[in-house]
Amino acid sequence: ALLMGVVVIGQNGNKGGFTTENLDRSANACQDFYQFATGGWQKANPVPGAFGRWGSFNILAEHNRDALRTILDAAEKNPKAARGSNEQKIGDFYASCMSEAQIEAAGMQPIMPELKAIDKIKDLRSLQAEVARLHSYGVGAMFGFGSLQDAKNSKMVIAVAVQGGLGLPDRDFYTDDSDKMKETRAEYVKHMTNMFQLMGEDAAKAAADANTVMMIETKLARASMTNVEQRDPIKTYNKMTIAQLRELNKNLWWESYFADIKQPGITELNVMQPDFFRALDKELTATSLDDWKTYLRWQLLTTYAPTLSSKFDTENFNFFSKYLNGTKEQLPRWRRCVAATDGSIGEALGEVYVQKNFTPDAKQRMQTMVRNLIAALRDDLQTIQWMGDETRQQALTKLDAIAQKIGYPDRWRNYTALKIDRKSYAGNTMQANVFEFNRQLNEINKEVDRGQWIMTPPTVNAYYQPLRNEIVFPAGILQPPFFDFSADDALNYGAIGAVIGHEMTHGFDDRGRQYDAEGNLRVWWTPDDLKNYQARATCVENQFSGFKVEEGLFQKGKLVLGESIADLGGLKIAYRAFQKSLEGKPRPKDIDGFTPEQRFFLGWAQVWATNYRAEAARQQALTDSHPLSRFRVNGPLSNLPEFAQAYQCKDGDPMVRPTTDRCEIW
């Protein structure tokens, strides 16, 4: 996925087409192209108080939220909406979230039944039964459970168990001994103490409970894979039978868990991180039941805090948004409620959204560009020198098999089983979580439904799914100014074209290359070709490891490798497709002194225009597989001779890497 979307829009009201307002003319394009291309935008677009970072993704996402609000306001006020209809459900969900007086009056009552259930835990069996119940409510206590395609039999869905149970964003927040991480852990304990006090505990008990949770979460973190290790699909494929599960875990009774989640027919499970579950197994008896009950109370509370009364919601915001991300203030209530509705019943909302905000013309033009990009990548695969014919043929077969999804699903999700009313925001959220948990579980041991989407239609993003070998572009990203009928091909190929190329290249990045045309995890590279590929990938990794975020913190080259390969490959492919689109046509005119080739690269750079608070930049560098925007622009462009030629950059300029240091894969 792109994570951050790719659009060019400013608070000055510019809605698309080519503009020089985003530029910083005082900067040198060959010294720092990101500053040259986006410096004007950065100056005009400071980070608003409710955000940790502010970029083109955020602006278009907020624009989409405005459109969704119009839909939800109408649904909320429609007395004729049939009971059980999607319109009734989205209207009632939104209304329950907007009913602040009702939420305040309820306090923590919505989670009281589950808190009482936790209090009744009396042995290991009832502890695990409660964990199963919490999982159905979307609470990731101890570990995560769900379903995914079987990576070695991609036509089928298999049950999966994954490491989890942490309150902080990543295992390294518990294990890193830097001064900043020590401070963060101390602040987290303070936050938990405050939350336990809001539940009614006295100061001493609240502090003790917070330390208990920290102790348990730290043990789970130390047993967890790093975010880099989790990128390895071989390490995270460990399919086990019931007999093997019994051998792996003596205290975690999987057959009882399967019965508790009403899936007794599960006979095999992909345990993605076996070492984590070995450690958890020991902790089930090494840690007292009372401590586990404290931990479960915390997991429930922190999950549902945003849906409870303002004292819980505000304290949750103060730590996770204000402290960790540097955010100064909460988003307006309606914006949070729109996002919550989209997150819980997004396809019900998305069906109305696309009727009002997506045109067949946009889909048709997008399909044309996808075809052009596939043709460009096919030409590349047929001619690259470092790949042998055997691997080349497999790669071409995979390319030809890539499925394309544009705009919205052909078949919408059926929400008949989901009951929503206006009585309780937290209650509706619980019901939506139970619906989604059961939907996933009901797919286990069945053939994959390839019509499903991971993202909702209003989402400003795109993704490649290696197990399905598909590229997906939701309607939310396919609109002006990002995908703009009024803009010339140079900008569109530099923006949406490079994104199409980015998603296609994910099929051949360091993870995607391990899956074949049908989405199965298998070795289809010859040893020599694999060695050549890995050497080229290491070049990209080393480059990005050298990008400094702040004093003492650099990008993690291994973590951002897949996205960086996709950016580099996507740009090269899009540029070739753009050049091919010019064949047989009059050369496009210069605009404001910029050639078509220069505008192509401006299109790429300006879609990543972003301002960061220091806290948000730090957290992205620590936990995110996507590099910071400056490096997403300057990193790949400094490897492209086409860029240097377009801007007449010379050897020795920072934006021109020496031939010996230049990275090239596709």
Quick summary of this structure?
With 666 residues, this protein is an alpha+beta fold. The chain has 25 helices and eleven strands.
What keyword list fits this structure?
666 residues; Collagenase (Catalytic Domain); Neutral endopeptidase, domain 2; 2 domains; three-stranded mixed β-sheet; globular
| Helix percent band | 40-55%
- Please state the structural category: alpha+beta
Low-confidence segments, ≥5 residues, pLDDT <50? 4-16
Strand content: 5-15%
What's the CATH topology label of the largest domain? Collagenase (Catalytic Domain)
Which shape, going by the Cα principal axes?
A: globular
How is the main sheet built? Answer: 4 strands, mixed
CATH class of the largest domain: Alpha Beta
Mean pLDDT, to the nearest integer, reads 95
Strand order, biggest sheet? 2-3-5-4
Straight-line N-to-C gap: 19 Å
In terms of topology, how is this protein built?
Layout: H1 33-44, E1 53-55, H2 56-76, H3 86-98, H4 100-106, H5 112-119, H6 124-136, E2 143-150, E3 153-163, H7 172-175, H8 179-198, H9 203-222, E4 239-241, H10 242-248, H11 254-260, E5 268-271, H12 274-286, H13 289-304, H14 310-325, H15 333-357, H16 360-383, H17 389-401, E6 403-407, H18 425-441, E7 463-465, E8 470-474, H19 489-505, H20 527-545, E9 548-550, E10 553-554, H21 561-581, H22 596-607, E11 610-612, H23 614-623, H24 629-637, H25 641-646
Parallel strand pairs: 3-5, 6-8
Antiparallel strand pairs: 1-11, 2-3, 4-5, 7-8, 9-10
Helix pairs in contact: 2-3, 2-15, 3-15, 3-18, 5-13, 6-13, 8-9, 8-14, 9-13, 16-17, 16-19, 16-21, 19-21, 19-22, 21-24
